[in-house]
């Protein structure tokens, strides 16, 4: 029995487990999540993975701990040290509105209030040190921070992305004076221009780090009890880090789970021979949509998570509140709404028989006959009577038949997800009609035809193991390390020798294993622009080559290019180990044979037509009018629009 690489993805309703052995054979499993402590469900999954003496060579985890802490605002007590005169940076932000036309909406309050912001009497300008940081100024900062009794100190000084000496001096003094207090430096977390984003990202790192570290300690202990190696953790950028590295880069875990799904989808897509795709992962709580270009997940410089700007590289994922547990309700105007509130794992949809009484998207599927007792997995028994009762209660409020209300709930959920699919594609210069739709998660294949109809897609690839594809992405992902270095130079001023020197300098900051892949990206823009694109760079390139590559990418993404100078803002260095091998082949019925066996589903020789419902491992595929489905050699399904 060969040792397996295990991926475990914790969702709002279910925790998914995938084990891939040394030959690439895949096994998947699904159990209920434990929201009170995610590591409990992970431990349950590990016990299943090691059942029968099965050895585990590697364990990679995707977690929502960081995301939940941001949403619940349940992080650490942080003090911020900022340059004197710039202590209101988090409050001034970008001076934009939370909503252009809704004056009642506001941005979330900063994690650090004004009373926990400490000024430092120093100043570095682009031309050098303007106001030196002397011993008296350092002593004053230390005493003021000591009086605040913070869990973590975040230091973000003006222009520290280019010159971090003053931050290092303050960090040394604070660590000496407060040895039990962690200190986070912006020059280490995010050494790039834009003071607000750098400050917000540094504060987010400090806010998350203690809670993430505690969770990873518990998780490592549970893994050790099961005889499993310490976990690797998926980052928002789509690579795995060791548990110790992940604990020191908590802000990079904000999209840990969704990133695993995009990695898994990209692997299945390449195996199927496709290159460009839109992905949709519909779970119990939410739907995550993403974009794959050229067979690789699209990575962006950063964005907001739970309203908090985190300017670290991340796989493009947009989340909407349209999962299987999203609750249907009637607003004050008498209109039917779905979400954003969710029944979650506890009590869950009424159909799960755990005490839920509110109508959810899952209950609507049960009412319409899309989900039956044989469709459910994860140790859940179907209570169809409770589902019908919940939807009937909502229908009585609307004065409409339950079946009509159930269909309307699905239409509303589909419309919300379709808008997100358009945003991630059209806004980046990608025509969704030229993409394949890759649905996964427990609910993705249920909604895929309706979503494709709304955005004009004509081909759908339902990947093998769609119900646990995020966990599969975790099991096969490569270990990755990244480093960012500030540049801020005109491309025209750089010859090939200068570019090579910069590449070597940023690469020297990271250790790597033998035969690891090395890649560099120049974060570039036209002079005067406020946003950048990551352009691949290699040794031997000069500034002219980088500028030409940037202009071509700008034209593809935005539909135009300019005759303007190109600036290189920063260099991003990525080094990756080998990915775990995986073999996509026709499903052989080898799900684990125990009391919680996943149903293998229907024949892969069948041709699917309108009205067909196929039980997949951990998911259900539904074919609507106008679509036909055929089995794919990878073990998935290919759905195509019928010719009219």
In short:
The protein has 16 helices and 32 strands. The chain is globular, with a radius of gyration of 25 Å. The relative contact order is 0.12.
CATH architectural category of the domain at 74-213: 3-Layer(aba) Sandwich
Q: What is the CATH topology classification name of the domain at 74-213?
A: Rossmann fold
Output the strand order for the largest sheet.
3-2-1-4-11-12
Radius of gyration: 25 Å
CATH class label of the domain at 74-213:
Alpha Beta
Percentage of helical residues?
A: 25-40%
Q: Calculate the terminal CA-CA distance, rounded to whole Å.
A: 51 Å
Structural classification = alpha+beta
What integer is the average pLDDT?
90
How would you describe the shape?
globular
What are the main properties of this structure?
644 residues; alpha+beta; Rossmann fold; five-stranded mixed beta sheet; 16 helices; globular
What does this protein look like?
By secondary structure, the chain is an alpha+beta fold. Among the domains are: 74-213, Rossmann fold (3-Layer(aba) Sandwich), CATH 3.40.50; 326-412, no CATH class; 480-576, no CATH class. Helices cover 32% and strands 26% of the residues. The chain has 16 helices and 32 strands. The strands form ten sheets. The protein has a six-stranded mixed beta sheet with strand order 3-2-1-4-11-12. Strands 13, 14, 15, 20 and 23 form a five-stranded mixed beta sheet that branches. Helix 4 (135-148) crosses helix 5 (165-177), helix 9 packs across helix 14 (469-476) and helix 12 crosses helix 13 (444-455). The longest helix is centred in the N-terminal third of the chain and has 31 residues, at 195-225. The chain is globular and about 75 Å long. The N and C termini lie far apart (51 Å). The model is unreliable at 587-605 (pLDDT under 50).
């Amino acid at each position: 029995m060969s040792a397996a690489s295990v991926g475990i993805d914790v969702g709002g309703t279910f925790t998914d487990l995938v084990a891939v052995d040394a030959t690439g054979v895949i096994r998947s499993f699904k159990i209920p999540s434990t929201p009170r402590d995610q590591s409990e469900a992970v431990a349950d999954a590990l016990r299943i993975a090691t059942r029968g003496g099965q050895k585990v060579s590697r364990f990679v985890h995707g977690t929502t701990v960081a995301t939940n802490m941001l949403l619940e605002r349940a992080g650490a007590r942080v003090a911020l040290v900022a340059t004197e005169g710039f202590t209101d940076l988090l409050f001034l932000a970008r001076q934009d509105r939370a909503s252009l036309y809704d004056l009642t909406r506001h941005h979330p309050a900063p994690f650090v209030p004004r009373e926990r912001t400490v000024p430092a009497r120093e100043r570095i300008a682009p031309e050098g040190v303007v106001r030196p940081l002397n011993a008296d100024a350092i002593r004053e900062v230390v005493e003021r921070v000591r009086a605040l009794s913070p869990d973590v100190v975040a230091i973000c000084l003006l222009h520290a992305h280019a010159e971090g000496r003053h931050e290092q001096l303050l960090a040394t003094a604070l660590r000496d004076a407060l040895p039990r207090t962690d200190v986070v430096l912006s020059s280490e977390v995010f050494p790039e221009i834009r003071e607000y984003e750098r400050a917000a990202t540094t504060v987010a790192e400090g806010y998350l780090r203690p809670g993430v570290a505690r969770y990873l300690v518990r998780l490592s202990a549970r893994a050790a009890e099961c005889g499993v190696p310490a976990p690797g953790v998926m980052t928002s950028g789509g690579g795995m880090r060791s548990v110790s590295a992940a604990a020191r880069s908590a802000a990079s875990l904000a999209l840990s789970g969704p990133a695993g799904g995009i990695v898994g989808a990209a692997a299945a897509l390449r195996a199927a021979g496709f290159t460009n795709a839109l992905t949709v992962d519909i779970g119990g709580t939410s739907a995550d949509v993403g974009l794959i270009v050229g067979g690789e997940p699209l990575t962006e410089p950063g964005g907001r998570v739970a309203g908090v700007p985190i300017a670290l590289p991340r796989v493009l994922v947009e989340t909407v509140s349209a999962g299987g547990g999203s609750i249907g309700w009637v607003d004050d105007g008498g209109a039917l709404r779905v979400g954003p509130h969710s029944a979650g794992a506890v009590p869950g949809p009424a159909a799960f028989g755990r005490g839920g009484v509110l109508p959810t998207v899952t209950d609507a599927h049960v009412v319409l006959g899309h989900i039956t007792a044989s469709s459910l997995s994860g140790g859940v028994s179907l209570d169809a009577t409770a589902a019908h009762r919940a939807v009937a209660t909502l229908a009585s409020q609307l004065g409409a038949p339950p079946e009509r209300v159930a269909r309307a709930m699905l239409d509303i959920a589909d419309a919300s997800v379709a808008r997100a699919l358009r945003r991630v594609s059209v806004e980046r210069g990608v025509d969704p009609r030229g993409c394949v739709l890759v649905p996964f998660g427990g609910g993705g294949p249920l909604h895929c035809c309706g979503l494709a109809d709304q955005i004009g897609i004509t081909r759908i690839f339902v990947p093998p193991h769609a119900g646990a594809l995020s966990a599969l992405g975790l099991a096969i992902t490569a270990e990755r390390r990244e480093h960012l270095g500030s540049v801020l130079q005109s491309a025209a001023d750089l010859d090939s020798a200068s570019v090579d020197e910069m590449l070597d300098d940023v690469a020297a900051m990271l250790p790597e294993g033998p035969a690891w892949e090395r890649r560099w990206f120049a974060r570039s823009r036209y002079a005067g622009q406020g946003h950048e694109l990551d352009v691949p760079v290699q040794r031997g390139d000069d500034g002219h080559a980088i500028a030409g590559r940037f202009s071509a990418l700008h034209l593809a993404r935005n539909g135009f290019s300019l005759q303007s100078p190109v600036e290189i803002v920063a260099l991003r260095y990525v080094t990756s180990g080998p990915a775990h091998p995986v073999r996509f082949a026709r499903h052989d019925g080898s799900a684990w044979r125990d009391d919680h066996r996943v149903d293998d589903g229907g024949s892969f020789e069948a041709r699917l037509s309108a009205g067909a419902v196929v039980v997949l491992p951990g998911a259900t595929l539904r074919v609507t009018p106008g679509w036909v489905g055929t089995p794919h050699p990878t073990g998935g399904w290919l759905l195509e629009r019928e010719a009219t």
